[in-house]
């Protein structure tokens, strides 16, 4: 690995492996000395890069089913994105954040741990989304800044009730530690034996926001992570459902990057929307220009 200013170039995967083999305690030591910052910077907006997809076995981007499977390549893209002005932090699972700690890429960044990864992409139990990632006590011990959980609700799938119940208890546990938790809600349904599909209609997103906002014994530390609706013009009405602060999620937007930017631009003007949490759309843009994609997204804020 070569560090040039705040930019990491040429991630040395071999060096990471050697550290993990010989000095596994280095990860905890790096977390302990990491320079922290407030959740919101001076601009009062959030720009978070998401990279928690691989832990669900979700490795595809567009037409490339294993785009995120090369860890060295992913880390280089993440380090480049994190080095760009206006990027506040990263959302990822423990393995990715441990690598970024060892690379020294998380100083003065918001570090958000991904908490429930048990609902593996394509599995029969996908909506029984167990908390197999970070626990609230882990985030507290490591000095991280927030957690994130995915809450997909299918009225026909009993696994959704188990996810709802465990999510509520995690929100309680995070609030006890005064740690923000970002809840990403969807109403979801299966068509026959196919995979679950998230419903992005205005009514469905409205209901999902209402359900997520009411979880647990307090909402004091709860944020929402919400999609832009199928019709972006519906977002103003949809976001009236809750007073909880919210960020927009990106998702896999395909080849039409400009259309995604326009959807985000409009929704970012709404009073409860405080920023963006975007992963694949910025890390794997159609033209390959990670820095350009990130800078354009930051400009929307």
Overview of the molecule:
The chain is built from eleven helices and eleven strands. The protein has helices at 13-22, 25-33, 71-83, 94-102, 136-142, 159-176, 202-213, 235-238, 257-267, 280-283, 290-300; strands at residues 2-4, 7-9, 46-51, 89-92, 110-114, 146-153, 181-190, 196-198, 222-226, 246-249, 273-278. Strands 3-4-5-6-7-9-10-11 form an eight-stranded parallel barrel, surrounded by four helices. Helix 2 crosses helix 4. The chain starts with a strand and ends with a helix.
What's the total number of strands? 11
Q: Level of helix content? A: 25-40%
N-to-C series of helices and strands: EEHHEHEHEHEHEEHEHEHEHH
Question: Sheet bearing the most strands, described?
Answer: 8 strands, parallel, barrel
What oligomerization state is this entry in? single chain
What structural category do the secondary elements indicate? alpha/beta
* N- and C-termini, Cα separation: 31 Å
Strand order of the largest sheet: 3-4-5-6-7-9-10-11
Low-confidence stretches are: 1-8
Rg, alpha carbons: 18 Å
Distinct helical segment count:
11
Q: Beta-sheet strand percentage? A: 15-25%
Give the overall shape.
Answer: globular
Mean pLDDT: 93
